[in-house]
Specification:
- The structure holds two protein chains of two kinds.
- Chain A is mainly β.
- Helices cover 0% and strands 54% of the residues of chain A.
- In chain A, the strands form two sheets. In chain A, strands 2, 4, 5, 9, 10 and 11 form a six-stranded mixed beta sheet that branches. In chain A, strands 1-3-8-7-6 form a five-stranded antiparallel beta sheet, with no helix packed on it.
- In chain A, a hairpin with a 5-residue loop joins strand 4 (32-38) and strand 5.
- Chain B is mainly β.
- Chain B is 0% helix and 56% strand.
- Chain B is built from no helices and eleven strands.
- Chain B has strands at 4-7, 10-13, 19-25, 32-38, 44-51, 57-58, 67-73, 76-81, 90-98, 101-104, 108-112.
- Classes of the chains: A mainly beta, B mainly beta.
- The A-B interface holds A 34, 36, 41-46, 49, 90, 100-102, 104-110 and B 4, 6, 9, 31-32, 34, 42-44, 46, 49, 91, 93, 95, 97-102, 104-107, 109.
């Protein structure tokens, strides 16, 4: 079984400040980990993914995340927040069934990011 | 990049009627399609997984006779909400799995009145 816990349902930062969204996972197999962003009434857009290669993963829009196996964490960061980053962010884990199959995704509860001017 | 087209984006229907939601992978073949449901201010809950040409696998607690899934081709999957009731009102999202990961549709806001 796998699960994801996102610490903090709401995070508020000032424009230009560091963004840190926390994600801890539980998985019985080496996980694939993902961060997605969702804008209101829209689907999910992939920010970045970890699939057992480099532990520091760079994604789109200046986001990055670091896989730390010892801490079972995959926190999302961005050095300088922009107003357009305001959205809901989801961390997800899959069991990576092998080959080209990523298996089922299990999502965290989501974190709403608010960016103040 | 990979694109999944989901239609309709919004639908309002009367209680007791059925609604069909389509998801098409436009530039890749989706070996597997996932259907999610998202209630306001909540996360995505997986409803079912479908592979082309075979019956869908439903998650525990999801009524397969109410949420009919058809995955007749590698580029099209449909979810039909049968005999819809107000409690079925939700945001439904599909996700297609191709060779390089998941691509999500833009979602369908279903309101049953």
């Amino acid at each position: 079984a796998q699960s994801v816990t996102q610490l903090g349902s709401h995070v508020s930062v000032s424009e230009g400040a560091l963004v840190l969204l926390r994600c801890n996972y539980s998985s019985s197999v080496p996980p694939y980990l993902f961060w997605y962003v969702q804008y209101p009434n829209q689907g999910l857009q992939l920010l970045l993914k970890y699939t057992s290669a480099a532990t520091l993963v760079k994604g789109i829009n200046g986001f990055e995340a670091e896989f730390k196996k010892s801490e079972t964490s995959f926190h999302l960061t961005k050095p300088s927040a922009h107003m357009s980053d305001a959205a809901e962010y989801f961390c997800a884990v899959s069991d990576g069934s092998g080959g080209t199959s990523y298996g089922k995704l299990t999502f965290g509860q989501g974190t709403i990011l608010t960016v103040h001017p | 990049g990979a694109v999944v087209s989901q239609h309709p984006s919004r639908v309002i229907c009367k209680s007791g009627t059925s609604v069909k939601i389509e998801c098409r992978s436009l530039d890749f073949q989706a070996t597997t399609m996932f259907w999610y449901r998202q209630f306001p201010k909540q996360s995505l809950m997986l409803m079912a997984t479908s592979n082309e040409g075979s019956k869908a696998t439903y998650e525990q607690g999801v009524e397969k006779d109410k949420f009919l899934i058809n995955h007749a081709s590698l580029t099209l999957s449909t979810l039909t909400v049968t005999s819809a009731h107000p409690e079925d009102s939700s945001f439904y999202i599909c996700s297609a799995q191709g060779s390089y990961g998941y691509t999500f549709g833009s979602g369908t806001r279903l309101t049953v009145v």
